[in-house]
Amino acid sequence: MRSVVRITLYYLMAIIWFFPILWMVSKSFTPTTEILSSPGNLLPSNFTLENFQAVSSRWPFFRWLINSFVVTTGSVIISIFVSLLAAFSFSRLKWPGRDFVFVVFLTSMFVPWEINAIPLYFIANKLGLLNTYPGIFLPISAMPVGLFLLRQFFINIPQSVEDAARIDGYGSLGVLFYVIVPMSAPALGALVIFVFLFTWNEFFWSLICLQTSNMLTLPIGLKIIMGAQNIEYGLLFGASCLAMLPSLVVFLILRRQIIRGISIAGSTK
Fold first, then answer.
1. Helix, strand or coil for residue 151?
2. Rounded to an integer, what distance in angstroms lies between the CA atom of residue 70 and that of residue 116?
3. How far is CA 171 from CA 89, 162, 164, 177, in A?
4. Most buried by CB count within 10 Å: which residue of 2, 19, 45, 183?
5. Predicted confidence (pLDDT) per residue in 21-71, tens digit
6. Which residues have CB under 8 Å from 215's CB, separation 6+?
7. Dist CA 53 CA 62 (whole Å)
8. Model confidence at 231, in pLDDT bands (50, 70, 90)?
9. How far is Cα 97 from Cα 82, in angstroms, rounded to an integer?
10. Alpha helices, DSSP H only, in the chain?
């Protein structure tokens, strides 16, 4: 009976979560006039693809899509590389002040992302990074969440595995890339999906850093499509549906890794 109740609750929660997405997808195939006249209908009475055609013809949507892909890819690559090196140092190497420095990095996770906007703007302006791809993904790559996630995973790897690798002649980098990394697929999957989703949906810093229309990312583009008055809801739903697909595909591919990686990162040693 407990199993039945638990599974029933899980399905109810899934339906509650999925219903807004299903409603959005349905409205993306519905004319704006019908959306305004019958907003409660789940299925469109007049099926249309005009919303998707309007998105591509009236707005540089695919340019925004490419910009988001470039920024997200750069953020994921740099975050993984930097987090791997830092997490290995904080978990497997011994050096003076290691734990104190890690606490300092960990404390920075409690600082809201928006507070960094002003100093980041002056730094990016001084370095000539405003309105560039690196100006967006470099600050995101410096977030310490990847360091924390991978460190928690690395400290659970038995020391005997590392000792055996060193006996075979591997140095610290060899242990990391040939032994630790292949064993860390769940944690890396969790980190990839977290950084991907955060960067893909990031709005605040991108709005400050980007200054020309051809450099805009999807979240800012959706805000422009929405406008201030006379909102074309069909067009907006169609654009939102297209913008959601890449992150949904990545999540579905890596869902097992993210669940396992987060559960392991929550353990301590």
1. helix
2. 22
3. 13, 10, 11, 10
4. 183
5. 888 899 889 888 888 888 777 888 888 888 888 888 888 989 999 999 999
6. 67, 131, 132, 133
7. 12
8. confident
9. 20
10. 2-28, 32-37, 50-58, 61-92, 98-107, 117-127, 133-141, 145-154, 159-167, 172-175, 181-183, 185-201, 204-209, 218-226, 233-265
CA dist., res. 200 & res. 66, Å (int)? 11
Q: What is the pLDDT of residues 78-105, one digit of tens each?
A: 999 999 999 999 988 889 998 899 988 8
Give the Cα separation of 241 and 81 in Å (integer). Answer: 31
Distance CA 268, CA 228 (A): 49
Q: What is the CATH number of domain 59-265?
A: 1.10.3720.10
CA distance 248 to 63: 20
Spell out the domain ranges in the chain.
1-48, 59-265
Q: Look up the pTM and report it.
A: 0.83
Q: Which of 101, 79, 183 is nearest to 175 (CA)?
A: 183
Cα separation, 209 vs 125, in Å, equals 9
- Convert 193-225 to b/e letters by CB count within 10 Å (16 or more is b): bbbbbbbbbbeebbebbbeeeebbbbbbbbeeb
Burial 6-34 (b: 16+ CB within 10 A, else e): eeeeeeeeeeeeeeeeeeeebbbbbbbeb
State the Cα–Cα distance between residues 126 and 38, nearest whole angstrom: 52
> In whole angstroms, what is the distance from residue 227 CA to residue 69 CA?
24
Closest CA to 90 of 154, 39, 35: 154
